[in-house]
Amino acid sequence: MRIVAGEWRGRRIHFPDVAQLRPTPDRLRETLFNWLQSHVGGARCLDLYAGSGALGLEALSRGASAALFVERDARIAAALRATLAAFGDARGRVVERDAAAFLSGPPERFDIVFVDPPYAQGGLGELCTLLESRGWLAADAWIYLELAAHAARPPLPEGWVAWREARAGEALGLLARRRAARAAAAVDGT
Q: pTM of the prediction?
């Protein structure tokens, strides 16, 4: 797998051959970053269920200021650390932990969040609720959800707006935008 664009364009991402690892297809990744192109520069990104790290690495390649990769598998987390070291980049940080347990910890605010759990796991709606209710999102955060193309779309928390979706093979990518801050400001008259 290769980085699609940016400073690392064409560089290979190496990761272990693990059965449940399913990197985001190149076509879907390219579409997603075309949608986000004016929002990635300087953004703080969270890559939950990082796996190969393709989404967070692509964001860093395109100018994100930071990316936090959350991956519970020790072999995959080690491969992500090795990739960041090979790329000579200090903007990425890898946390070896289950995503739901991680979201129960002390929050940091992120501008862009990638949520791509194993398709069979389910629970995307609950993860979205944790992101919203625990304070992980910047006021106008973008949230990318990836699920099996045939799966039901998860319910989005109040204040999130479904913005775009695309399909590539068996994967469906949904991009949502958090609008909670603007809605609250309009109600308050600020």
A: 0.88
